[in-house]
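Q: Structure tokens for this one, please.
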Amino acid sequence: MFSLETPRLFLQHLEETDADALHEIFSDAETMTYYPAQHHRPAQYSLPPCCGA
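A: Here is the predicted structure, written as tokens:
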């Protein structure tokens, strides 16, 4: 996995385990004030009809 680190910043590829932390960030109104779009996490994920769900 590639990562980039400086004294003040650490960047790495997102992983599935990051979903809860990102949801918390995207759910914070103050944090999202200048973000161009709001993100919503569905209560339940489901496959599209073509996938036999």
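A few notes: The longest strand covers residues 3-5. DSSP finds one helix and two strands in the chain.
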